[in-house]
Design a protein that fits this description.
599 residues, alpha+beta, six-stranded mixed beta sheet, five-stranded antiparallel beta sheet, elongated
């Protein structure tokens, strides 16, 4: 068995391809293997080893050893042990080639992760596994070694569905498009060296996309003009049809005409064939002639769509080109599946999140209200912070601003439950102190149950909350406010002359002590005055070792908001929080302002 050691570098996949191709070519000549079959065997082995080496070196950063052994006929397809490994000697019939990629760095692991977790290191393995399954390749994986065996069988003996069966289908396609065997060999030689790098680029570009139409657009840009003059991508729909997602042409002025020509005749939704001739749309180029092929986008046993490419002028599409496009189509299909799964999960999440917060704030006479809310989590509309402002009848309104411990989905679920529970208690006639007391009891009981069920590893949820009632004055404007704070940053009051002061004392967090009693404070909010409530995402915004609210920083910001309306104050505080540090915001931001006005 021939071996070579490779260190982590961008040239490693190319060196692995050259090494495997050289070993197979040398042994094929001595074993009198037919030229086309040897070329295809070398191409397939180079493609698979390129994916494995890219996975190990460029993602895991681990030095490896690549071994290649063309094999004679064996009675069993099982992998030989190292003790009895043998290679085909000169004159022996060459029936298969064994390629092994092993971790050679002492004390380390390549971590061959077939499910792709761990920062993308398993992407190459997914590709190799998919190719092995579709080609009938013997493929095995352990913690330290990945190996595969490719069979070299004459056309007459090739079983249906095997690697060679796929080869023959593609050679049939090549006979349609290739002007001559010499031209076909030139194209194979041209693409065999660059194919691995091209496929690695395609994998890297497609893997991070979370929108299926963007995946389709990138597929067109990958293939045009390197492999085709134009490309069209159809994607399957929920009702079983096909929609033309993207069309790409090397001449952008012909894209619209090409779309009009292609759209009336989509591929069949259940198409499973790889690389079949496709009718040439006459508007695809000025001369109205060329060759086109269609490739199904199949992943997980389901058709996700179809990819059609075309080359204008004399037929030049070859087996090497069609094989490369098939590999790209597999990657596009997997990227579409990933994007669709993300879209489904995002839609479900947003549908659930919409019920966690009120769609809008209630309007009340004599008081302007405004909310600025920025959840920290990517793709979320709701986080651990929550707010509400609602009418409870008899000329009274209630408002709240809270923060649940944590930023995970469990915290998000608590926000919705808390908001609805507060509404229910308030409308049953409970005052500020009673609402906080009953909510505290409910949180404490839930925390005790969580610990009882989950043991010491279970963490009870704590909640900070500002909750108050407003009684607007319909004659003079402004409102009477009754307010309490449970473990929350104290709300700040801004007078018309620029004085700023906290209006309540912060009390114990909700959910810590079931027997805690809360005290409410009452004050008048006169016309021109403002009440500012924020969560700790604002007060604890950091810049180095400093926090925004150090030395009454938030009060200084509010002092500069004299004469502003509710929304202007909220926006000024939000901007100040973002400007306080050059680092990204690391917590939810919620700002609720109430500004009294004259009726």
């Amino acid at each position: 068995m021939s071996r070579t050691d490779l260190s982590a570098s961008q040239l490693a996949p190319s060196r692995a391809r050259i090494f495997v191709r050289a070993v197979i070519t040398e042994r094929a000549l001595s074993a009198s293997l037919p030229g086309p079959l040897a070329e295809r065997l070398a191409d397939d082995a180079a493609l698979l080893v390129s994916e494995l080496v890219t996975n190990a070196l460029m993602h895991a950063g681990t030095d490896i050893q690549v071994a290649c052994s063309p094999e004679p006929a064996r009675p069993s397809a099982a992998r030989p042990s190292r003790a009895d490994e043998t290679s085909a000697s000169e004159g022996e019939e060459l029936t298969s080639v064994l390629v092994e990629v092993a971790d050679r760095q002492p004390g380390s692991r390549v971590h061959w992760e077939a499910d792709g977790r761990g920062g993308g290191r398993g992407l190459g393995l997914q590709v190799v596994a998919a190719l092995a399954e579709s080609w009938g390749v013997t493929y095995r994986r352990t913690e330290k070694v990945v190996w595969f065996r490719l069979a070299a069988v004459e056309r007459a003996a090739a079983p249906a569905g095997s690697l060679n069966d796929a080869l023959h289908r593609e050679l049939d396609a090549a006979d349609i498009f290739s002007p001559s065997p010499q031209a076909d060999r030139r194209r194979i030689a041209e693409w065999s060296d660059r194919g691995g790098a091209f496929l690695a680029e395609a994998s890297e570009l497609l893997s991070g996309q979370l929108d299926e139409d963007m995946v389709a657009a990138l597929a067109g840009q990958l293939l045009v003009p390197r492999l085709a003059d134009w490309c069209a991508v159809w994607l399957s729909t929920d009702v079983g049809g096909m929609r033309l997602s993207r069309v790409w042409h090397r001449d952008e002025q012909r894209v619209d005409a090409l779309r009009l020509a292609l759209e009336p005749d989509p591929p069949a939704p259940g198409l499973r064939t790889a690389g079949i001739p496709w009718p040439w749309p006459e508007s695809a180029d000025g001369a109205g002639s060329g060759s086109a092929m269609a490739f199904s986008l199949v992943s997980g046993g389901a058709c996700q769509g179809s990819l059609v490419i075309g080359r204008a002028g004399p037929p030049e599409m070859t087996a090497a080109v069609t094989r490369t496009v098939e590999d790209v189509a597999r990657r596009v299909a997997q990227a579409v599946v990933t994007a669709r799964q993300y879209t489904r999960e995002t839609s479900i999440s947003r549908a659930l999140q919409r019920r966690q917060l009120p769609p809008s704030l209630a309007s009340l006479p004599g008081v302007e209200s405004a909310i600025v809310y920025e959840p920290h989590g990517r793709g979320q509309t709701v986080g651990g912070d929550f707010y509400d402002l609602f009418a409870m009848g008899n000329g009274r309104w209630c408002f709240l601003l809270g923060d649940v411990q944590g930023k995970d989905p469990e915290a998000m679920s608590v926000t919705g439950l808390t908001r609805h529970l507060v509404r229910l208690l308030a409308r049953e006639g409970h005052g500020v102190e009673s609402v906080l007391g009953r909510l505290n009891t409910a949180m404490a009981e839930e925390g005790a149950e969580a610990v009882a069920v989950g043991g010491e590893s279970a963490q009870p949820r704590f909640l900070s909350l500002v909750y108050g009632e407003l009684e607007p004055d319909p004659q003079a404007g402004g409102a009477r406010c009754t307010l309490a704070s449970a473990g929350h940053p104290p709300p700040l009051w801004l007078s018309t002359d620029g004085a700023v002061a906290p209006v309540v004392e912060s009390q114990l967090l909700l959910g810590i002590d079931e027997g805690t009693e809360f005290t409410a404070y009452s004050f008048a909010l006169a016309p021109g005055e403002t009440l500012l409530c924020v969560t700790d995402g604002v007060t604890e915004r950091r810049s180095g070792r400093r926090q925004l609210d150090d030395d009454d920083g938030l009060a200084e910001i509010l002092r500069g908001c004299v004469g502003m309306g509710a929304m202007a104050v909220a926006e000024r505080v939000r901007q100040a929080a973002h400007d306080f540090s050059t680092e990204p915001v690391e917590d939810d931001l919620a700002i609720l302002t109430l500004h009294a006005v004259t009726v």
